[in-house]
Design brief:
Elements (H helix, E strand, L loop, with lengths): L2 E10 L7 E12 L2 E8 L4 E7 L2 E5 L7 E5 L19 H8 L1 H7 L6 E6 L3 E8 L3 E7 L8 E6 L2 H10 L10 E11 L18 E3 L9
Length: 216
């Protein structure tokens, strides 16, 4: 609870290739279904999702597209296309924030689960996910909080599909995506102003909230 963090993603498509910066997400999580997520990419696009516990606001940060209001989810927005595994691999960390039940859904039924070591400092857990391939979570075992410091996955299945459908894509050779996690604050109070799920005046809004007593 009360976590402010920054996730920076970079990726390579071949073993000796350079890592290119991808997207960044800044997350403020008070706990439960109160959060603020701001995502931006190297291309200049992005989005913001804010939940006050009752309403979830999704702002595409694009004046040509409306802001969407929905009933707040029970936890993190795992089904939101921007932050879910199908839309962005940032979803891995959101599953961790949601708790053990959601984390179990990351691991494929037939997956291995094994411990791994990275240098003399970091330890990790490795498993497979059908969308992302082999996933590794690294932490400092000397930290009593066991905070995940970075995440790696190969994303091989998606890259192979791209190579099959687009001649400009090369077949991947030991690809790797890495997400570095920087904790800006942990267990420190977060101001209420971060979690205001109310659009500014003058902006187009699509309200998908279900009212009390409404039958869908």
């Amino acid at each position: 609870k009360n976590v402010h963090l920054l996730i920076t993603e970079s990726a390579r498509d071949r073993v000796l290739g350079p890592f290119y910066t991808g997207s960044t997400i800044e997350a403020y999580v008070r706990g439960g279904n109160v959060f603020r997520l701001v995502q931006s990419s190297m291309w200049g696009d992005g989005s913001m999702v804010v939940s006050d516990g009752k309403t979830m606001l999704h702002d595409p940060l694009d004046l040509s597209s409306p802001i969407t209001l929905e009933n707040a989810p029970k936890g993190m927005p795992l089904a939101d296309e921007t932050f879910s595994l199908s839309g962005s691999a940032h979803g891995i960390f959101l599953y961790l924030l949601t708790g053990p039940t959601a984390f179990d859904k990351l691991i494929s039924a037939e997956s291995f689960i094994r411990s791994v070591k990275r240098s003399s400092i970091y330890s990790g857990v490795e498993f497979s996910n059908k969308e992302l391939g082999t996933v590794s979570l690294y932490y400092d075992p000397k930290d009593p909080r066991l905070l995940v410091r970075w995440i790696e996955f190969d994303n091989k299945a998606w890259l192979e599909k791209q190579a099959q459908t687009d001649p400009e894509w090369d077949n991947p050779n030991q690809p790797l995506t890495r997400q570095d996690i920087r904790y800006l604050s942990v267990d420190a109070p977060l101001p209420n102003s971060l979690f205001v799920a109310k659009p500014s005046k003058g902006l187009a809004v699509t309200d998908k909230r279900k009212k009390m007593g409404q039958v869908s």
